[in-house]
Structure formats: structure tokens, C-alpha cells
Amino acid sequence: MYIFLKNAGLVLSLCMAVSFSVVSYGKEKNISWLDSQINKDPEVVAAKELLNASNHRAKSLTQAVYNPEFEASYEKEGDFDNYSIGISQTIDFWDKQSANKSIGEIDVYANQQQLLSLLDSKKANALTAIVNWQAAKKAAQLLSERENQLQTLVGIVEDKRKVGLLEPLDAELVYVNLSQIFSEISESQITLKNAEVKVQELLPDWTPNTANLSSFTFGVTSYSFKSQWVENHPKVKLARAKWKGQQSKAQLTTMESKANPTIGVSAGKSGDEDLIGVTFSIPLNIRNNYSDTVKAAYSEAIAAEANFRSVYRKQSFEAKANYESLNVSKKYFEQWRKLTEGRLESSANLLNKRWEAGDINTSDYLLVLNQRAEGLHAGIRLENQFKLAEISFVLSMGQLSKFEI
User: Fold this and answer.
1) Which residues are 81's β-sheet partners?
2) What confidence tier does 84 reach under pLDDT thresholds 50, 70, 90?
């Protein structure tokens, strides 16, 4: 159950420091190359302009709610000139100005969090694209090496077959393996080109030869899950700000449903007599007391709180899931790296020597070569899986902006 204070004179304040000066995201002197590329994204430009707009709007909401009104009249009655001038002012009796100020500050804060969330999302997408491109590049290089290896093997097999050291079937086995490699190379090159285009979409000045981010790392050896980080996630802060904003709007709606008096003074002349007047008026909310409008505003505030709790819950479970995925992928990638360290190269040399010496036949030799290649591909997939899990976890914890990449 959600409970709200409905005192018309109370303005719920959001316990957060909001400055009216717009944070100049992307204008820092030491901005990274990656951030400079992200700042060119049209969505980021639009979000910054919306932040500027909310900043100006917040400043306007600090001004007085009602302006004074000037009145003047003149009439001629026979030989007499009658005239009067006056001024009136509606009193902000329920202090709507303070409520407006609170709404403006919260709106600025919400737009700041919206921009931060967008920047983190764009950075994570860019890093993901780079990681996928790096994996595709390594896979393509591995297949190219296998092609060169088999092309060399074809020449050796032909020479041995001519002198009677190998059967014609051995040469056919090599050709079959080589033809299979061509299909894999084609698929690999398509994947690589698609990965390149994706990175270029997100980072306009990037090329495959760009040195920036050729090999990035978070530099973290162990990770931990902290609920405080989830609470400070831009998405969660944004949802909380929207909730508080709806509370303040509900308070303002209550104030607007109540009448504000208008007081005026006037002076003039009627014939030979001087006139001085005082006026007082106040709306009578008899035919419409706006109670349904107030109820609707508080229902929207309750809905905003429920949405905040939903966002927080969803973000918490997403971060926990990413944390578990990261630990699993890290564990098996490190096991693969430890298992294969120094062995793949030495096993390849030993395999070549045994085949050339005739200790193993060509069929077994090709089988082991393919198994070795599969092991290398498995390593590429495990590394890619680990890096993507790392990006997802850091993003879900709202900590991506803390790393200098």
C-alpha cells in the first residue's frame, strides 16, 4: 500500500542536489576517444538538448506564478471627465511557486539521469560491437592460417605421393579438408564484415586500422555484487525521480484546486470628486471543486512509485543474473587458457614431425589438426563470451562510466 501526504501546503522535496547549471557532458578536456565518438550520436545530441530545455524550464518555474494586472478607464459624462487607474494582484496563497520550483529541479535531475543512462547504453553497445569484431577477426585469421597450412600440406602430399610414400587417397583427404575450409572462410569473412559495419555505425571515425580500443580491458581481477550500485543505477534513479516528480505534481494539483484571492487598488476622479477604491475577489469552486482531478494526480503518483519499484526489482535481478554469468564464463575461459598455455604450439610442431616421419597416417593427422583448430575456436568463443558478460555486468551495475576506456 502506498501512502501520500495530501496537505496542500506541503511540498514534497526530493533529497538530491540538483544544480540549475547544465552539466556539460562531452565537453571535458580529457575526454576519451570513445566518448568523443559517442557524443556524435544523434540520440545523445537530442538527449543533451532535452536536458538544456529542462534546465531553462526549471529556471522559468522559479518565477512568480501571477503577474500584477494594470487597469485604466476613461469616460466623459456631460462636461465632466471621469477616469480611474488601478492595479490588482492575485496572491499565491498556497505557495504554488515552491511546488513549481521542486518540479523543475526534479525534471532537470531526471533528464540528467536519462542522459547518463543513454551514454552508458551507447558505450556498452560500442564495446560489445568491438568485442564481436575482435572475435570475428581472430576467427578469420585462424581460418586463414589453416588454409595456408593445408595449401602447404597439399604440396607435401603430392611430392610424397609421386615417390610412392603416400597413397592417392591421402591427397584426396587433404583436398576434401581444404574445400571445407573455403566454406568456413566465406562465412567467417561475412561475419567479420558485418561486425566492421556495426562498429562503424556506432563509432563514426573508427576503421579496422584504428589503434583506439584495439585491445581494451576493465583491468578487474574479481567482481562483487553490491545492491547499493543498483540503487545508484541511472535507470533506477530516473524511475525514482519520475515518482518524486509525480508526487510534487499531485501536490501542485491540490494547490491549484484551491482558490487564490485577488486584491486590487484604484484611484481616479468622477466629476469634481476624487475616487479611491479597494477590490477583493476570490473564485467560488462551487460547481466544480476539482476533487476528481486531484484524485487522478495521486493515482498517477502511486503508479509512478509502483513503476520505480518494478524498475529497481528488474535491475537487481538483471545484475544478479549477469554476475552469475560473468563468474561462469570467467571460470571456464581461465581454465581453457591455463589448459592450453604453451601446448597448442608445441603439439602442432610435434604432430607435424610425427606425420612427416610416418608415425601417423594422413587421416589421423588431419583429424588432430581439425581438433586443434576446434580448440582454438573454442578459446575465441570463451574469450568473447567472457568479455561480453563483463560488459553486461558492469552496465547492469551502473558502473560503466567509472572506467576510463
Assistant:
1) 76
2) very high
